[in-house]
Amino acid sequence: MSTATTSKEKVAQVILPSELLAHWQGHRTLTRKVIEAFPDKDFFEFSIGGMRPFSKMVDELLSIAGPGIQEIVTGKAVAFTEEVAHGNSKTKVLELWDKTTEDINANWSKIGVEKFHDTIKLFGEYEGTILSSIQYFIDNEIHHRGQGYVYLRSLGIEPPMFYDRTEA
Amino acid sequence: MSTATTSKEKVAQVILPSELLAHWQGHRTLTRKVIEAFPDKDFFEFSIGGMRPFSKMVDELLSIAGPGIQEIVTGKAVAFTEEVAHGNSKTKVLELWDKTTEDINANWSKIGVEKFHDTIKLFGEYEGTILSSIQYFIDNEIHHRGQGYVYLRSLGIEPPMFYDRTEA
User: Fold this and answer.
1) Residue-by-residue DSSP string for A108-140
2) CB-based burial label for B85 (10 Å; 0-12, 13-18, 19+)
3) Looking at the domain assignment, is residue A162 inside a domain?
4) Does B27 belong to an annotated binding site?
5) Local structure of residue B16 (DSSP, 8 states)
6) What DSSP character marks residue B121?
7) Rounded Cα gap, residues B64 and B69, in angstroms
8) Which member of A29, A79, A119, B65 has the greatest number of CB atoms within 10 A?
9) What is the structure's pLDDT at A145?
10) How many CA atoms lie within 13 A of A143 on its CB side?
11) Has residue A121 been placed in a domain?
12) What ipTM goes with this model?
């Protein structure tokens, strides 16, 4: 098996598992900056056009990312819930964000490159492959963060640069 | 070479070039629906918080996608311009969108799987790999389209479902 593994690693790949992780965590670093940019009150209350406040979108991201990767790794389906116990404290949200960062990193290495096309039914509900699920996690985060940018602009606050994925 | 190619294809990959293309075109199909959802006047004029109208964001997407892939395939740098000749006609924008869809498809097969980690300086300015450039194209589109969703909601218009990437 080790020879096969070695030969696998040497074969050209569009993206390596480690690169996909870095890509996602880079986006998560930027999303963290967007959370930080919101005044506390506006994070939990400000909205446009009847949409959710940014905090509720972040609850969704937190509910998907950590539990999603855990389910991918363990194969144990858990029911999806967007209830996040932060007690309307942005500090607590950021703590949960950082905890999720660690959880994703800890679980990621358990997803072998040969697993990404395995089919799963995430949260007992969403059918796809491990790859399509992770793509959804990332894309959904970019989508809602883009909405957070409009909220910030509407509040007269300059958002972080879209391409800045480095930690502050 | 054909044996090597065959063995390559059989090796486990996170994502195949053809899958990355389908992922991007799926997103582009959704963005097309968002363009269609805007009333003509609002597409070119409506904005929030001093941001660009959605048409200007779409100009940016059109300026990046087709020319970007062409530069990736030909290696010939072209200066970046966001001037798109649509004469403030949404019909013309949609025509250019569909032309870009064809251009991307036509060029994509010329990017071999072994090319994605090659470094490039896109539009003579943006350094990265072919992979990171294409990831930027996709992510930037999701980001701005998410902003378009807020514009639509603010206009009282229901946007298309985020997960619906199929053609109408």
Assistant:
1) HTTS-GGGTT-EEEETTTEEEEHHHHHHHHHHH
2) exposed
3) no
4) no
5) -
6) E
7) 8
8) B65
9) 98
10) 17
11) yes
12) 0.93
Contacts of B136 in chain A (CB under 8 A): 163
pTM of the model: 0.93
Q: For residues A64 and A72, is the Cβ–Cβ distance under 8 A?
A: no
CATH number at residue B142: 1.20.120.450
* CA pair distance A143, A64, nearest whole angstrom: 14
A25 in a structural domain:
yes
pLDDT at position A1, please?
Answer: 31
**Which has the closest alpha carbon to B57: A133, A153, A165, A135?**
A153
Tell me the per-residue pLDDT of A2-56, one tens digit each, with 9 for 90 and over: 333 444 446 789 999 999 999 999 999 999 999 999 999 999 999 999 999 999 9
Beta-carbon separation of B13 and A14 below 8 A:
yes
| pLDDT band per the 50, 70, 90 thresholds, residue A83 | confident
Q: By the 8 A CB rule, do B162 and A59 touch?
A: no
**Can you read off the two tokens belonging to residue A138?**
């990332």
Q: Is residue B10 part of a domain?
A: no
User: CB contact, 8 Å: A157 with chain B?
Assistant: no
- How buried is A73 (Cβ within 10 angstroms: 0-12 exposed, 13-18 middle, 19+ buried)? middle
Structure tokens at B162: 């985020």
Q: Inspect the interface and report whether the beta carbons of B146 and A145 lie closer than 8 Å.
A: yes
pLDDT of B6 higher than 50: no
Domain count, chain A: 1
Q: Which domain holds residue A106?
A: 17-78+86-154
| B13-43 burial: b if 16+ Cβ within 10 Å, else e | bbbebebbbebbbbbbbbbbbbbebbeeebb
